[in-house]
Amino acid sequence: MKWNKEYYRRVIQHYVNIDDDIDTENAAKRIKDAIWFRGPNAWILAFSIIIASVGLNVNSTAVIIGAMLISPLMGPIIGIGLAIGTNDFELLKNALKSFLVMVLISVAASTLFFLLSPLRLVNPTELVARTSPTIYDVLIALFGGLAGILENSRKERGTVLSGVAIATALMPPLCTAGYGLAHLNPHFFFGALYLFIINTVFIILATYVMVKYLNFNTVKGIDQDRATRRRNLMTCIVLIVTLPSIFTAFNLIKASNFERDVQAFVSENKLVGRTYIYDYRTFRDHGQKVEISVTGERMSQEKRDILTKSAAEHGIKQKQLIIKEKAFGMTENEMRSLIKGIYDKTEQELSSKDARIVKLQARLDSLSEVVKSLAEGTREPENKE
Length: 385
What we know:
Layout (H helix, E strand, L loop, with lengths): L4 H12 L7 H10 L6 H18 L3 H10 L3 H13 L2 H28 L8 H4 L6 H19 L6 H9 L2 H12 L3 H28 L10 H45 L2 E2 L2 E10 L3 E9 L4 H13 L7 E6 L5 H47 L7
Parallel strand pairs: 3-4
Antiparallel strand pairs: 1-2, 2-3
């Protein structure tokens, strides 16, 4: 078959062309109308923040997602991107003012909730997850923002904005920052605030890019030097926000690989002679290290050398391996009894985890049905002739 460049160009253009579906004039009006935080919007924001805080406090992903669907957080952020892209400095001033009000309401409401909440989880995984942003959060915010402004610009809008609100996750970081403030925990406060800044900056950047690409009407008679300075400032902010997230992502990948190597090493060396590895933990102390806890017969130098050699084969250096011995001088029967007890406990934990997985899957299926119902409820009926 002969290559027909023009034919394939037309086919591709047919599928990717968006000009006929875009209405920038109405899109700009909708975005400007959505930046204000007063009256019902302010109350809805405060209520959704409390709902999200409850979800974070009890480790409930479903509740957090519900709160994100309720929240009107995206309005001022997209408004800032539109203002920069169209050189509308009056809109920029109003959007920034609303953005500040939004942040203050959110942090104040979540701080008050966590000050009053009697619940203190030992392992608040949903809160911890919002304290270490990486480059992947940058990508989510960027492409979520692109989807958001494109959806805002369509003549007939669907349910994309709800998905963008969930994906970019603006609300949970603000709630986590409130938790850090309530408990005077700088790690939670600054880590969550950094994630919120990442999401905000890259949604603004995505909006700016799409506003330029879609040729939104710009405000005339604006000092171009001033506009250029603002764009340069935005570029600097993007770089400053991005660089630490790349470093965090690198450390996350490194830690994940180290954890994987440690698991393989421990699994392969559970039993060395009459010495049993019954526990281990990884930590960072001038580099990544693993401490293994062993019991049974006292370890000879030969057994230590075997463990050290095996660790090296799994990428764990000798200085990264710490061996902690306990319960010396056990008889063979005592050791077998201890090992049997450990195995029984491990099986019980695995059964418990399987039950939790089944329960979470059921909740996920239920949530999917709710989201599907919402999508069907918000879909506009087709015009009938």
